[in-house]
């Protein structure tokens, strides 16, 4: 996180739009950054999401919890 706790972006330079709803995550307190990797090729792709939207898309037994750091 930067000095402003709500501007955390992880390893990308800016917040990404929510991959579920397509909406802005600029002021979202539940922003999560997801990295999908393919070890065989060392490829990776980042996705941003609102944790609530991600929880709605995940199967039962998987939950995203947001902890302010």
Question: Would you kindly provide a written description of the structure presented here, covering whatever features stand out?
Answer:
This protein is of the alpha+beta class and 69 residues long. It is 10% helix and 23% strand. A two-stranded antiparallel sheet has the order 1-2. Strand 1 and strand 2 (43-50) form a beta hairpin. The radius of gyration is 13 Å and the shape is globular. The chain starts with 30 loop residues before the first strand and ends in a 12-residue tail after the last helix.
Summarize the structure.
The chain has one helix at residues 51-57, and strands at residues 31-38, 43-50.
Structural class: alpha+beta
Order of helices and strands: EEH
| Helix percentage | 10-25%
- Inertia-based shape: globular
Tags for this model:
10% helix, 1 helix, single chain, 2 strands, alpha+beta, disordered N terminus, 69 residues, two-stranded antiparallel sheet
Topology of helices and strands:
Elements lengths: L30 E8 L4 E8 H7 L12
Antiparallel strand pairs: 1-2
């Amino acid at each position: 996180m930067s000095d402003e706790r709500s501007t955390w972006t992880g390893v990308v330079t800016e917040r990404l739009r929510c991959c579920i709803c397509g909406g802005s995550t600029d002021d979202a307190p539940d922003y999560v950054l997801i990295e999908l990797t393919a070890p065989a090729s060392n490829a990776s792709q980042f996705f941003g999401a609102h944790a609530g939207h991600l929880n709605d898309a995940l199967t039962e037994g998987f939950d995203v919890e947001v902890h302010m750091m």
